[in-house]
Task: inverse folding
């Protein structure tokens, strides 16, 4: 049986790992390479690396950091942040990424998803979707949560999958950094309506939260940052506990 | 050890390159038939789509080169599928090394493609020396090869299928040993030591 995946996320700013609350109030969480190697040893199933200050002049530095990390770890590695063209994707894959996450650029130019899938295969296309609950709906937000759109989470996810997205990285801005638990309802709705894996992100605070997002939220993978960065939850302990709860994990 | 990785239009070759570097082996990445023929061992990687990969191989004459190799060859993921007879992906005639058809996972209950860590069992080859039954490895695929006489590892997702194949000097893994943690590293080392 296929395992549920535990994915630590490194948000990178100027080569350091940072973490915020509700996408703001960033604080330093350590050296990216050291953290990547530590997570790999602790049993992470995959790593996600998001460059949150990605600008054109910093691209080269990003590729170098990707190469340094990719050469050291033996688990799948997704890189994202400011990716807006096939050239960006190609450069990151060459640098050693296994998958590339696209977010705002994909929303503004959905054809990019199709072109990425066609050229590099769906397996490397992770579409990041940042969402927030307003009124009675979950809406998609762009530019790291700064710009609201009128599109609902479910509508955009379906479109992205139809265009060739291989996985969906669903981040609830309402839960991000709160440590109050994942947004299980919307995760479940999305996961049950698409036939590609959904990675739930935002809100992990306790081991129970992970259990809930897999059982109630029907997530295929759960992503978290600060609980791992600050050693609040050890990945090995987390996976052992999940196994005790009959959730299939790799140990 | 002269280890060659076949370069073509369907491969995440950087990951394979890094994986061998981690176990202390430098690879040559090339599409030059002479260099491939003269290698000690060959890795035939692959992620992507079967029919376009096959057309590219034919165009470069690499299809014949690969089929005629006598030294150990390891196909990974799409590489393994292309070593089969036929793939439902793009209705593609493949290399025909393994007497197998590659089929699409049909399921309403489970997600396709399968992405993530799953077990390998019924391990039957020196390729798996030191690898325990039910070890976890990393998969990303929407098509599978059926069980049969060439099967040297089995995995269960929707149904039981071949997660590794062997015939003569040809080996194939459906999973990605280069991304499968210490288990994957052991399998790559075993291939080097064959």
Result:
């Amino acid at each position: 049986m296929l395992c549920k995946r535990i994915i630590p996320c490194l948000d990178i700013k100027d080569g350091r790992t940072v973490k915020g609350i509700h996408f703001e109030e960033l604080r330093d969480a350590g050296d990216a390479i050291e953290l990547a190697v530590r997570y790999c040893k602790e049993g992470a199933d995959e790593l996600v690396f998001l460059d949150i200050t990605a600008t054109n002049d910093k691209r080269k530095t990003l590729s170098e950091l990707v190469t340094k990390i990719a050469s050291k770890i033996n688990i799948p590695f997704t890189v994202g942040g400011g990716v807006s063209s096939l050239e960006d994707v190609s450069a990151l894959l060459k640098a050693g990424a296994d998958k590339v996450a696209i977010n705002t650029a994909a929303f503004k130019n959905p054809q990019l998803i199709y072109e990425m899938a066609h050229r590099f295969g769906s397996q490397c296309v992770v579409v990041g979707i940042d969402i927030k609950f307003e009124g009675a709906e979950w809406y998609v937000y762009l530019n790291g949560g700064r710009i609201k759109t009128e599109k609902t989470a479910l509508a955009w996810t379906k479109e992205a999958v139809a265009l060739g997205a291989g996985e969906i990285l669903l981040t609830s801005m309402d839960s991000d950094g709160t440590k109050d638990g994942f947004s299980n309802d919307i995760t479940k709705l999305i996961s049950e309506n698409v036939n590609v894996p959904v990675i739930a992100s935002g809100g992990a605070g306790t081991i129970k939260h992970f259990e809930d997002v897999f059982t109630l939220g029907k997530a295929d993978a759960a992503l978290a940052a600060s609980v791992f960065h600050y050693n609040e939850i050890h990945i090995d302990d987390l996976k052992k506990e999940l196994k005790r709860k009959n959730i299939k994990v790799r140990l | 050890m002269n280890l060659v990785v076949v370069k073509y239009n369907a491969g995440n070759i950087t990951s394979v390159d890094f994986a061998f570097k981690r176990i202390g082996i430098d690879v040559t990445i090339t599409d030059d038939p002479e260099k491939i023929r003269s290698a000690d061992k060959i890795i035939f990687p692959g992620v992507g789509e079967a029919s376009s990969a096959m057309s590219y191989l034919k165009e470069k004459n690499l299809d014949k080169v690969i089929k005629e190799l006598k030294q150990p060859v390891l196909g990974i993921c799409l590489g393994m599928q292309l070593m089969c007879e036929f793939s439902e992906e793009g209705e593609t005639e493949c290399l025909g090394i393994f007497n197998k058809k590659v089929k699409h996972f049909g399921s309403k209950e489970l997600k396709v493609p399968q992405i993530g860590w799953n077990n390998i069992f019924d391990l039957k080859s020196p390729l798996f020396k030191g690898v325990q039954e039910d070890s976890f490895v990393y998969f990303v695929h929407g098509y599978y090869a059926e069980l049969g006489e060439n099967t040297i590892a089995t995995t269960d997702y929707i149904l039981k299928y071949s997660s590794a194949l062997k015939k003569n000097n040809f080996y194939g893994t459906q999973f990605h040993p280069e991304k499968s943690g210490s288990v994957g590293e052991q399998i790559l080392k075993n291939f080097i030591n064959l």
The first strand of chain B starts at residue 3 and ends at 6.
